[in-house]
Amino acid sequence: MTFYRGRFAPTPSGPLHFGSLVAALASYLDARRAGGEWRLRIEDIDPPRCPAGAADAIQRQLEAFGLHWDGPALWQHDRHDAYQAALTRLVDQGLAYPCSCSRKQWRDYPVYPGWCRQGVREPGRPVAWRLRSDLGLRPVMWQDRLFGEQCFDPADLGDVVLKRKDGLWAYQLAVVVDDADQGISDVVRGFDLLDNTPWQRQLQHALSYPEPRYLHLPLILGEDGQKLSKQNLAPALPTEDEAVRPLLHGALTALDQAPPAELREAPVAEQLAWAIDHWQVARLSAEPHRTHGADAALPD
Ligand code: GLU
């Protein structure tokens, strides 16, 4: 069996909702079905967006749903030195550069036009650090396990920010360094992150990291047809067992795994055992999944 290590990497900007449960569950089942490991990474690189207690709440929610991770959780706030080392490597290779431009200055362009590539335009001002996308101009390609072949033109991607002007690390760099350091073989996550993957592939290439396999999951929409998200005030997942059981069943339904109806009230461990045994990526539909009452019996 090929080596498998997956991960769930929530941003603790609030508690998990049904959409995040679906992503956590799919990556958990894919890992367990493969006899692999499943890691937890708390993506708290942006402290102002992460209220105190949210990461703990997320861990309690995962436990209530029986989604137990292997080893200790990795916290991004502890990872400054690793991110800095990666950025230094890119700078030394001429692949990253400081940039003083503001979004306002290039608002008429679809992506940042690379004005600071040859030197900071306004020295003395705060700088962000960007990845050069204009070197070795090869299309960025990968085979997504659900969405098939993906191909992006580097000119459309632009020079992605690796470190922000306020000194905070950008998600794209942190996720790539962490996936590599944690030895992640398989990334299973929501469709909304698919368009971030090309930058992550570029960075993996620039840093000579192995490339994980990718499975992006169908988008989960609420009853109103809107994406479930913290911004749309999707309700937090409960942790009481009576509420957890039908929701877990609903998440398996949202993943097109067709769990038997009688499993709906079964203990979490029993539902998960069934789901690991029956997990099939081939059943997943690439169409957005619209939840309805029975599917996602969330409390008000
Ligand atoms: N932290 C990201 C989120 O919560 C997920 C990152 C990933 O899975 O790559 O949306």
Please, could you describe this protein's structure?
- L-glutamate binds at residues 7-11, 43, 171, 189.
- Belongs to the class-I aminoacyl-tRNA synthetase family. GluQ subfamily.
- The chain is an alpha/beta fold.
- It is built from 8 helices and 12 strands.
- α3 packs across α5 (171-181).
- The longest helix is centred in the N-terminal third of the chain and has 16 residues, at 18-33.
- The termini are far apart.
- Bound molecules: glutamic acid (GLU).
- Glutamic acid binds next to loops.
Write the layout of secondary structure elements.
Layout: E1 5-8, H1 18-33, E2 37-42, H2 54-64, E3 74-75, H3 80-92, E4 96-99, E5 128-131, E6 140-144, E7 148-152, H4 154-157, E8 161-163, H5 171-181, E9 186-190, H6 197-206, E10 213-217, E11 220-221, H7 241-254, H8 268-278, E12 289-290
Helix pairs in contact: 1-7, 1-8, 3-5, 5-6
Bound molecules: glutamic acid.
Short description:
This protein has 300 residues and is of the alpha/beta class.
Dominant shape: elongated
CATH homologous superfamily caption of the largest domain: HUPs
Number of DSSP strands? 12
Mean pLDDT metric: 93
Distinct helical segment count:
8
- The amount of helix comes to 25-40%
Main-sheet strand order equals: 1-2-3
CATH C-level of the largest domain: Alpha Beta
* Ends apart, CA distance between termini: 44 Å
Strand proportion, as a percent range, falls in 15-25%
Q: What is the fold named in CATH at topology level of the largest domain?
A: Rossmann fold
